[in-house]
């Protein structure tokens, strides 16, 4: 009885406390959602200051590493539906880039990045036809997407190494695409025609050139089907290209209330990363004809596997961790890395070709190392409500070296955000990350949503 | 609505309804059974003062008659940095879509709670489906406006994996079968939040609460109001509730 009386005594004031916390003033007025609006536009202005600390490396880097760069951008995305079944989509960014070592008014100062420009038509309910430059993206994983077959040479100036940021800023591919969606399943066919010759890497990124050649250097096709088996979400893909057709699969599955597991695999006949890089370099004139491979390859095209497997785990209501294993069979093994460093030591003149291999892999968005781990932690409301803290690391499982980044983003208001990213290449001098000349990079970014 | 009346008649005849029936009637009193679109405005109050920045969500809701659960498509309208982002909530199938990257990421029920969209379907949770209910008694409690209400006091424990919380306490007004108040508890038994349902108004054929006041029990400085408006019945094809449709929904 005493316990009951005590409970009632305690319960009463607690409930009154609840009522005391209910705000007396009225909330702000409703904003009616423009659910069926014919024009949807998003725009923001951004300034990103990048400072880099360089270091001496065992295999000389053939270019000068800019110590400071400032990029000011205006970013616009627009979707216009003049008719219910018709949509016009445009996504573009204009950059003004100033960096040390480059004239302020050079051909590289002003850059236009035409990410998307296409027309969509819902021919019959649930069936869509699209034509134009589209960001065609597939893949369930976060750090590496083996089934993201249209990813090569799509990257544009980035304010972060975070894959989720990289995906937001990339060039689309000129395609014609048909997709039909049923209840619980979908299928699509995509064809990307060859519209230019493969460009050199690194390419000329200045001016108004839409760089169609970067994304449409070969005829390519993609067939995709998605379906669900209970909670298992499945996507099967067939990718056709003269050099490197592949099949792939994406799977996601929930484990309990806080874990999502995913697996992404692609495979097909493919040359090694080194062989492909040197072939591309000589073909596009970046490397002298007859450049000999500093790392022996047999030139064959065995069946190569690419895999990204992992999961996300949300702890409480605050922190989400992603952990992934990446396998890139065409990448460099431990023995290949030894040969890479041996070749650089034995013949400094080979440095250009050696670094070209790495630059080619970066442009193709494929891992260098055969085995890699990726970890990311996202903490959306860190200490205060509008501060998000993210950390990520790519760890080479071949040599243990790591690329790590810590990012803090503060949403100062509804329209302003400030972000500070600190990243470091960590590892011994004779390791993948430790051999990079960029030791430490900091990026301060200010965004104004218009 | 008719089943609510039947239950009310049963109550008048002094035959106490079962806890399950009370919760089911409260679900029906809170949620339209026709597919609809509405706008939710979320305003945070910190120490009683409204934050300048609000979140506006457009929510499409459809009852899945085979499972008895509601399916939600939550689209961010405000703030500008989040405009166009989508969250699909369909039982265990939850996806987050970002139009900037054209990327859909599958999220877990727990991860859903880390974002503001966790409040997006606060009005459309089918408690009778996800929880086992037990009638604790009858009480007179104060509603959000401090008016006294005769209510059933129920305890709900998670019965399916889809249940967002392991335990709830729910107070349902005896006369109207409208929820007055709810308490939400974590797996460890910690009180997470207290919700008051208020501002009843005519919505799609019935009187329903149009505002939920969510009192954060962890951050004792924080209260969030979720106001709903602009209800209209619309056709929502079942195929909208899957990952592949998310990039297309802007076109609808």
Describe this structure in words.
The complex is a heterodimer of chains A (450) and B (252). With 450 residues, chain A is mainly beta. Chain A has six helices and 18 strands. Chain A has helices at 2-21, 163-166, 212-215, 273-283, 334-346, 351-363, and strands at 39-54, 68-83, 86-99, 110-124, 127-134, 173-182, 185-192, 220-229, 232-241, 246-255, 259-269, 303-315, 319-328, 371-379, 387-396, 402-411, 416-426, 438-449. In chain A, helix 4 packs across helix 6 (351-363). With 252 residues, chain B is mainly β. Chain B is built from four helices and 14 strands. In chain B, strands 1, 2, 3, 4, 5, 6, 7, 8, 9, 10, 11, 12, 13 and 14 form a 14-stranded antiparallel beta sheet that branches. In chain B, 50% of the residues are buried. The interface between A and B is large, with 72 and 68 residues.
- What fraction of residues of chain A sit in β-strands? over 45%
Beta-strand segment tally of chain B: 14
Distance between the termini of chain A: 63 Å
The portion of residues assigned to helices of chain A is: 10-25%
What is the structure about, briefly put?
The complex is a heterodimer of chains A (450) and B (252). Chain A is mainly beta.
Highlighted features:
heterodimer; A: 450 residues; mainly beta; 18-stranded antiparallel barrel; 14% helix; 45% strand; disordered N terminus; B: 252 residues; 4 helices; 48% strand
Task: Give me the secondary-structure topology.
The complex is a heterodimer of chains A (450) and B (252).
Chain A: H1 2-21, E1 39-54, E2 68-83, E3 86-99, E4 110-124, E5 127-134, H2 163-166, E6 173-182, E7 185-192, H3 212-215, E8 220-229, E9 232-241, E10 246-255, E11 259-269, H4 273-283, E12 303-315, E13 319-328, H5 334-346, H6 351-363, E14 371-379, E15 387-396, E16 402-411, E17 416-426, E18 438-449
Antiparallel strand pairs in A: 1-2, 1-18, 2-3, 3-4, 4-5, 5-6, 6-7, 7-8, 8-9, 9-10, 10-11, 11-12, 12-13, 13-14, 14-15, 15-16, 16-17, 17-18
Helix pairs in contact in A: 4-6
Chain B: H1 2-12, H2 19-30, E1 36-46, E2 49-50, E3 55-64, E4 69-78, E5 86-90, E6 93-98, E7 103-106, H3 109-112, H4 127-130, E8 131-142, E9 148-158, E10 167-173, E11 179-185, E12 191-203, E13 206-216, E14 222-233
């Amino acid at each position: 009885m005493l316990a009951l009386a005590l409970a009632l005594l305690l319960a009463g004031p607690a409930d009154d406390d609840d009522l005391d916390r209910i705000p007396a003033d009225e909330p702000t007025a409703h904003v009616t959602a423009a659910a069926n609006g014919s024009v949807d536009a998003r725009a923001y202005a951004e300034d990103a200051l990048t400072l880099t600390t360089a270091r001496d490396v065992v295999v000389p880097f053939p270019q000068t590493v800019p110590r400071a760069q400032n990029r000011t951008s205006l970013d616009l995305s627009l979707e216009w539906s003049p008719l219910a079944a018709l949509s016009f989509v445009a996504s573009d960014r204009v950059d003004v880039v100033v960096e040390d070592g480059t004239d302020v008014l050079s051909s590289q100062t002003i850059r236009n990045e035409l990410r998307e420009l296409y027309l969509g038509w819902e021919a019959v309910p649930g069936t869509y036809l699209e034509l134009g430059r589209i960001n065609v993206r597939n893949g369930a994983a976060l750090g590496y997407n083996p089934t993201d077959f249209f990813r090569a040479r799509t990257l544009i100036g980035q304010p972060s190494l975070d894959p989720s940021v990289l995906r937001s800023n990339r060039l689309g591919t000129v395609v014609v695409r048909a997709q039909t969606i049923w209840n619980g399943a979908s299928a699509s066919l995509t064809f990307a025609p060859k519209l230019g010759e493969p460009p050199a890497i690194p390419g000329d990124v200045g001016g108004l050139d839409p760089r169609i050649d970067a994304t449409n250097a070969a005829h390519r096709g993609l067939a995709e089907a998605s379906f669900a088996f209970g909670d298992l979400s499945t996507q099967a893909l067939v990718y056709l290209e003269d050099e490197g057709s592949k099949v792939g699969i994406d799977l996601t599955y929930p484990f309990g209330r806080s874990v999502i597991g995913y697996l992404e695999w692609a495979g097909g006949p493919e040359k090694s990363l080194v062989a492909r890089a040197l072939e591309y370099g000589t073909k596009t004139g970046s490397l002298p004809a007859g450049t000999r491979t500093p790392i022996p390859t047999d030139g064959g095209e065995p069946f190569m596997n690419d895999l990204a497997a992992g999961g996300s785990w949300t702890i409480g209501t605050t922190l989400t961790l992603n952990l992934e294993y990446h396998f890139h069979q065409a990448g460099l093994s431990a023995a290949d890395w030894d040969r890479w460093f041996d070749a650089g030591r034995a013949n400094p003149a080979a440095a250009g070709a050696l670094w070209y291999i790495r630059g080619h892999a970066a442009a193709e968005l494929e891992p260098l190392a055969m085995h890699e781990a990726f970890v990311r932690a996202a903490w959306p409301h860190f200490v205060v409500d509008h501060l998000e803290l993210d950390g990520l690391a790519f760890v080479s499982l071949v040599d243990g070296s790591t690329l790590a980044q810590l990012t803090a983003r503060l949403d100062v208001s509804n329209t302003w955000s400030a972000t500070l990213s600190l990243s470091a290449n960590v590892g011994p001098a004779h390791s993948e990350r430790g051999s990079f000349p960029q030791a430490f990079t900091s990026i301060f970014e200010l965004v104004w949503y218009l | 609505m008719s089943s609510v009346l039947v239950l009310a008649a049963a109550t008048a005849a002094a035959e106490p309804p079962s806890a399950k029936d009370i919760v089911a009637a409260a679900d029906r009193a809170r949620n339209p059974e026709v597919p609809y679109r509405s706008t939710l405005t979320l305003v945070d109050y910190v120490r009683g003062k409204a934050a300048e920045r609000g979140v506006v969500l457009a929510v499409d809701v459809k009852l899945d008659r085979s499972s008895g659960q509601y399916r939600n498509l939550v689209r961010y309208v405000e703030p500008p940095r989040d405009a166009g982002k989508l969250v699909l909530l369909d039982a265990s199938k939850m996806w987050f879509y970002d139009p900037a990257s054209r990327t859909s990421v599958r999220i877990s029920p727990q991860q859903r709670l880390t974002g503001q969209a966790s409040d997006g379907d606060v009005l459309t949770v089918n408690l009778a489906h996800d929880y086992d209910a037990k009638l604790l008694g009858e009480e007179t409690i104060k509603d959000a406006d401090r008016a006294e209400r005769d209510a059933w006091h129920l305890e709900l424990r998670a019965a399916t994996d889809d249940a967002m919380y392991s335990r709830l306490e729910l107070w349902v007004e005896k006369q109207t079968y409208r929820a007055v108040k709810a308490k939400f508890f974590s797996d460890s038994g910690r009180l997470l939040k207290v919700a008051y349902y208020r501002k009843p108004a005519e919505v799609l054929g019935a009187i329903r609460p149009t505002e939920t006041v969510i009192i954060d029990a962890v951050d004792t400085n924080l209260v969030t109001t979720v106001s709903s408006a602009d209800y209209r019945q619309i056709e929502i094809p079942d195929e909208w509730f899957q990952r592949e449709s998310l990039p297309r929904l802007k076109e609808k």
